[in-house]
Write a structure and sequence with these properties.
single chain; 196 residues; mainly alpha; 9 helices; 56% helix; globular
Amino acid sequence: MNTILRKSVLGIAGLAFAGGVFAGPVAAHAAAPMVESTPVAAAVQADKADTGKLIPHGVQGKQSRIDLSDEQVGNVKAIIAATKKADMDERAAVVSIATALQESKLENLGHLGERNDHDSQGLFQQRPSSGWGTVEQITDPEYSTMAFLKGLKQVDGWQDMPLTEAAQTVQVSAYPDHYAQWEQQAADLVTEHWNS
């Protein structure tokens, strides 16, 4: 076979091979069924709080739940805003909200007279006589939340503790196990309001 003919045959064979290599994946890709993507759903999913992060130990014990008034929801939002201001995460907000649910049912309580636990007031039932601040300060939702979070930050390993242990270490309650019953509702509230 002469050289020119051989080069022509090899050239054509090379083009056919190259065409198959390049066209093959394109053809295979074109033959694959199209799958519709839903980037909007993925974006919405990314905004949702991670339940494993909010409740890392799972809920402990029977859970309680109450319906919230507009004022109570406003207090939830104030706790979340203060948590963000303190540069803390969603878990800190869950601990804070569960604590306030137990202490005051998320109501910013003033002095309750004879029904008062010593001089406890506000969302977290903090006591001026224990150094939490003045009455005016501890009945301010932002201040009282920041005070609670300051105490929480001082608890070594609070992120890895069950909620009731972390809350009790800050609050020093006569009923330390009662915080656990509010963990699910607190996590639900954080999920609902963290990005609102």
